[in-house]
Amino acid sequence: MKTESWYGAIPRDLVGDNAPSVRSGDDAALYGSAVFEPLEPVEARTHQSFVLRYTAGKIGLDDTGGIQVCTRMVSDAGKPQTTDPTKAGYLTATCSGEGSVRLTIGPYGQRPWNLAIKAELRGGYLSEGDTITIVFGDTSQGSPGMLMQTFAEGSYEFRVSTDVQATGNYLPLEQQFSLPIVAGGAAVWKAVLPSLRRPGEPFHLGLKAEDAWGNPTNHASGRVMLVPSLKVSGLDLEFPYEPDDRAMCFENLTVEEEGTLTIRVLVGGAEVAEAGPLVIKAGDVAGFWGDLHGQTGETVGVNSIESYFDFARNKAFLDVSAHQGNDFQINTKFWGRLNEVTAEADEPGRFTAFPGYEWSGNTAIGGDHNVFFRNEGRQIRRCSHALLEDRSEMGTDAHTLTDLYAALADEDCVIYAHVGGRYANIHYDHDAKLETAVEVHSAWGTFEWILTDGFPLGRRVGIVANSDGHKGRPGASYPGASTFGAYGGLTCFLTDKNDRDSIFEAQRRRHHYATTGCRMYMDVSVAIPGGGTLFERNPDAVPNTPTHAADTAIMGDIVQTDAGEVELSLNIQAHAGIERIEVRNGTEVLKVLRPYDETDLGERVRVLWRGAEYRGRGRDTSWRGRAAFSDAAITGFDIINRWNPEHQLEQRGINSVLFDTITTGNFMGFDAWLDSNDGTLDITTNRGDLSLKLSDIGFEDTVLEAGGLERELAVFRLPEEPLSRELSATVPVKLGETGDNPVWICVTTEDGYQAWSSPVYLFR
């Protein structure tokens, strides 16, 4: 099997964790040694079996002492168990000395090594040379083995510790064990283009194959033929697909004429993917795509910081990226290394990399916020030293969000409010100069409320989406089979060029839009009769900000005007059909635009469920149920947003659909094409029931309210054929007499993606 450059364990001194500060002695031979086998690469989501053999050291191992094996908290591997020898994950343990071994499994470890398997000696002791043997995924009695995680990792680690004197203090052994987890066979091809360039402006095309869990795989090859809709300079139209490292990227491509570029990808004569749309249009700006939020194995995620930025640029084909580790887990050495890597990765004109971190204060004193520096070498202001033994920088901590704002007042940085394990508390404090955006979508789910809660407070922030991925896949972050419930988001920055200065200016002027992971083209502007005064910065924070007379504004602009009504214009071009566009003023939906009308509806019924339990860490909400069509048979069936293939969402027989899924603020569901409109639809769920005549399902949503946080089930009808991928419109918008009018749009595509424009903030 090919050995990849990203294999290898994360250096211990870069990982923010804390081992016991006391020990029986400094001689490693006191604590014994271990061997672990095999340590060969294994395929993601396969069953495997491993053997760990611990040999006691000079002082043996006392009764009720033992060994502990921890794996990282960021893993969706199958759960180990000791009760059924025929089922997956079966563990066994034996010892050669006196007594027996009792196995316990639980979250006994310490972040990031939360899952712990304890092998505790009972009724005896071990002398030097005696052994404890643990079999992970013992297949001797019928178990298929240990189910591995869904995502590729350069070093899946088994951290072995010993408590030789039965103190409850487990000390890591010098020997540590890791093995690579690699992608499986190719399940889908992906071709990626940016969304906006000007004639003659360089762009890149990315091409890769992914396995069933979204891992770029090297198990794909073939003769590739590209069919572009416009003439592309610098692009070979036929070539062998033989990537060096799981993907290919074609740089410095150009199109000289205006238009919309798509590129069909054929492998072995069969179409496997389509890239685009890429709009080629003369103007002041291009669109640069970024995912600025994720973690690696040096903190709570997996893989190295070096592989993270390689993935962002060369596997996800991003233009912009940044790393955002939890601050209380970033030790001084890793902060230095992170700054070195961002400086190395940053390539003005092609790839922008920012140094930064996630300030991870508790929600009570501000909650999670992302900090991005324009330059390296800045002081990290942590919320605490919760996982750091080195206390030398404790005096630089900013314990509350207010403290953070004060500490960064003179720094060249921007801040985003984030919803993660700890959600940002926008009611606690806000610095209008530093905090330029809120993150409405990530792998944690979708959170429009982080924006709309701010409207009554007079907040003027832009909208971003990122992944907050912990699996080392920025820009293409699948949730796998863990509690993450959504595909990671992306942000498109509208600016003149791709470098730190330009991206920072786009952030500070809120010239960007967000998506749940697709790269659609979005053009939103507002025509202002009689004109107005456009502020380059938020005048609430920068009273002397430069101003300009303007009769038009784009997303993110702040404009004062005497106009009583403005006209919003939009043009959307997407990779899939456009299901609807909502035009909004604040929280009010002014108009819903669709590329079809009631006369186009056919025998396609869409059923969606969405929402969350509440705003905090346990927001996952389960949806279990059955949709049954009577007097109508399903002739076609399509799934929307089932990111975990192991969750049930399937057609059962000719007239039923069964589901057992979760949502985390986002939505999922299905389309069913029917052979009749005469029957009924009966939906029974753990959140409530809904019964409808098929003839009553129409253009508008029929909604079952289901409590929780924006939790609901919706049913409506669609045309039978694929929807139009482009929609242009103008919509009049009346302005209120007082306060801001945040004018923005939300786009939903036929295949379940969403996108939001940063609001234009208009006030009288």
Which characteristics define this entry?
single chain; 764 residues; mainly beta; Immunoglobulin-like; TIM Barrel; 5 domains; 15-stranded mixed beta sheet; seven-stranded mixed beta sheet; 5 helices; 42% strand
Characterization of this structure:
This protein is mainly β. It folds into five domains: 12-182, ntegrin, alpha v. Chain A, domain 3 (Immunoglobulin-like, Sandwich); 188-280, Sandwich (Immunoglobulin-like); 286-517, Alpha-Beta Barrel (TIM Barrel), CATH 3.20.20; 522-594 and 726-764, Sandwich (Immunoglobulin-like), CATH 2.60.40.10; 596-718, no CATH class. It is built from five helices and 52 strands. It has a 15-stranded mixed beta sheet that branches. Strands 2, 5, 7, 8, 11, 12 and 13 form a seven-stranded mixed beta sheet that branches. Strands 25, 26, 27, 28, 29 and 30 form a six-stranded mixed beta sheet that branches. Strand 23, helix 2 (332-345) and strand 24 (352-354) form a beta-alpha-beta unit. The chain is globular. The termini are far apart. The model has no long low-confidence stretch (mean pLDDT 96).
Condensed summary:
The chain has 764 residues and is mainly β. The protein contains 5 helices and 52 strands.
The number of strands is 52
Low-confidence stretches: none
The biggest beta sheet is recorded as: 15 strands, mixed
Structural class: mainly beta
Question: Could you name the CATH topology of the largest domain?
Answer: TIM Barrel
In whole angstroms, the N-to-C terminal distance is: 66 Å
Strand content: 35-45%
CATH architectural label of the largest domain: Alpha-Beta Barrel
Q: Which CATH class of the largest domain is shown? A: Alpha Beta
Helix content: under 10%
CATH H-level superfamily of the largest domain: Metal-dependent hydrolases
Shape: globular
Total of DSSP H or I helical runs spanning 4+ residues: 5
* Global mean pLDDT: 96
Number of discrete domains: 5
Gyration radius, in Å: 27 Å
